[in-house]
Amino acid sequence: MGMTTIRRICQQMAKGVIIVIVVAMGAGLFFVYPQLGQSTPDFQYRGPSVKVNGIKLKDEDYREQINRVSQNMMQMAMFGLEFTQEQIREEALQESIRNLVIESEIKRNNIRVPAADIDRYFNRMAKEYFPTKEEKKDFYDRNGIKNDRQLKEQIRRYLEYLYLYLKLAETKKIPVTVSDDEIRAAYASVRIAHILLSTKKDEKGSLSEAEAQKKAAEIYEKLKAGDDWDKLVKEYSADTTTKDKGGDLGETKLKDFNTQYESRYGKDFVQAALALKEGEFSSPVKSGEGYHLIKMLSRVEAKGPEFDREKKLIKAELVMQKFYENTEAYSKWINARVDEAEIEILDPALRAYQLKTKAQQEKDSEKAKDLWAQAAKFYERAVKMRQHRWDRDIFLSAMEVFVHEKTYDKAVNAGRQALKRFKDDLDLTLALGKALYLRGKGKDKTEGLALLKKARGLAWDDSRSLPRVEKVYRDLKLTKEADAVAKRTEKLIAQEIAEQERLQKEMEEQEKKQQEKATQEEQTTNTSPGGETANK
After folding, report:
1. What one-character-per-residue DSSP string does 155-196 give?
2. What is the C-alpha separation between 121 and 137, in angstroms, rounded?
3. Cα dihedral across residues 54, 58, 63, 68: positive or negative
4. At what angle do helices 85-108 and 327-340 cross, to 10 degrees?
5. Which terminus of the chain has a smaller tally of CB atoms within 10 A, N or C?
């Protein structure tokens, strides 16, 4: 699978690179929070990795990006897509380069974030996510945040992105516009609660139409007389998901209110709810579910000094949301910035992988030959570096390139080094066995065949690994050995299919027995004294 395909999948799964959209703040605002740390990355990369427009990528930032991409790849692995660590690092590198390009744009456009904006954003996050000391500790632990200073730094960087895109939109450098009506709609919100008297026949405790209407009228009179709303909700509401929390249906953006409630409860419900002021309750309203009494818990209007203070932030967030959603426009803009940038890959391993990938894709034989030679040169440096000594993927790629270049001594040396650290690793054993066999000396061929036989033993009971062994045998034109492995693979697959069919049949038989048992119990209940038959 090519990196272009991987990148497209990653972008679909993690739109916006560094953000997670969060709707439903206590104040009813539309906020887009920065993606917080998600535990320690599996791969503890040590650089330096890359420099873009004079800005060197920090190892900790690259590790976070590697971790982020790894998590996306893990999700794709559930669909049978597998990726090497080198592929993951390459995708993380490209994402990091784009981020550094944006940082360059932030500097070029002289974007500054006032401390007051950072503090206001921090306070809103605190109100929503960690209002108490205990909740704050838990939030920080879960997101890998050391202290307030670190979180505020993340907020600062996030707001820089926001204000950059806002400036670009206002100066017509990106094709995004946001109207005043959109800003007001993104700010305004309502929070309602209800008491439901159900008339659905299939629900426990449901009432007839007349009973529900009469009971709703009685509750309405009690509310007018000053009875406690929460007490009446617990006593009468048929909505089991909300009755223990005052009937609270949650906060909804005003722009989404009709869509959310009209499809479920109808136009009358929506009109009655939106006609209420904060603290008011409605007279009974009929819907397909039954009869409702609605209370307006809170209402945030798009006006006043608080709204005026937030307009810039709301507009910036809407601009960024629209920009990221317009994939074509965003890709065109960011790719142009990357093309203009001065990019220097500092890590030989990263550079070597890029060259190897280009060599594999290059159709011009002379250009491909030069790329393979360059890749070999950089891999030779990479396998000697201390920070890469525990990275098996780099050694595997290096051996692949060395074998392609017929520098078998280098391939053998790299393989021996790697197998000292990764004993009985199937792929390394195959790679070293292949390199030794191709080196062509008497003892080498003997040792190479022994290693290939060992690899065959390591994979002998694994139908997914054996094809890799077969491929190496076929590459070396060892047809007899390759056919034996292929035959073993077919046998294992047949056994696995048979086992799956056996388990499926067993499950079906168990289900059939359970159904028969349930039927017998039902018949016994109906025919026993006091049962339905006896009553008849």
Report:
1. HHHHHHHHHHHHHHHHTTSSS----HHHHHHHH-EEEEEEEE
2. 19
3. negative
4. 80
5. C
Long-range pairs for 379-388 at CB < 8 Å and ≥24 separation?
379/348, 379/349, 379/352, 380/410, 381/348, 381/352, 382/347, 382/348, 382/349, 382/352, 383/414, 383/417, 385/348, 385/349, 387/45, 387/46, 387/47, 388/349
Q: What is the 3-state secondary structure (H, E, C) of 20-33?
A: EEEECCCCCCEEEE
Structure tokens at 171: 């100066």
For the entire predicted model, the pTM comes to: 0.71
N- to C-terminal Cα separation, the chain = 70
For 205-353, strand residue ranges (E) read 248-253, 285-286, 290-300, 343-345
Cα–Cα distances in Å, from 441 out to 209, 219, 448? Answer: 93, 95, 10
Name the one residue in this structure whose structure tokens are 């809407």: 318
Q: What is the pLDDT of residues 200-259, one digit of tens each?
A: 887 777 899 999 999 999 999 999 999 999 999 999 999 999 999 999 998 898 888 999
pLDDT tens for residues 164-200? 999 999 999 999 999 999 999 889 999 999 999 999 8
